[in-house]
Amino acid sequence: MKRQLSVLVGTAATALFTTFGAGTAAYAQPAQADPVTVAATCNGNTCSGKDPNATGCSAGARVLADMVVPGYASKEFLVRLSYSPTCNASWTDIQAINQPDCYGGENIWHEAVNNSTGAVTRTARVYDGDACSAYTVMMSRVGRSTRACSTSAWTGGNYCTPWK
């Protein structure tokens, strides 16, 4: 009898714990909302010269090309040609790979070539300083190919991804 009572009490406690949880109220939790995404505020030519994050173009962006650029000593930077299909625009971004202190930053810029005329335009250089990362403003890809470029603080050489 003692064993049956013990099993009965244990089963009841398990049922209560399962139903109400440990110290929680007996009501359903609200459903989690989907993350809010910022709608892109530009497209194509209207994106040129604008910030990819502020315009919502960085959401859903993909990398078209990347390269590793040498920094001081054995430090390295990953330079990427980022592209937003939603905005039809691209930009250059840089991220320190193995730099705990981020000393010795790089200069980056973004270039576009007009596919009809061959004319090349570029953004102003952006120096990442000691921030470990940076990005340029966007350039439209309407009728253009673009590439990401960087100057190595270590070698002094210029590096660019292939035109995409």
TrEMBL record:
Signal peptide: 1-33
UniProt keyword terms in alphabetical order: Signal
Keyword Signal attached: yes
InterPro entries, per the entry: DUF2690
Protein name, as recorded: DUF2690 domain-containing protein
Species of origin: Nonomuraea zeae
Lineage, highest ranks first: Bacteria, Bacillati, Actinomycetota, Actinomycetes, Streptosporangiales
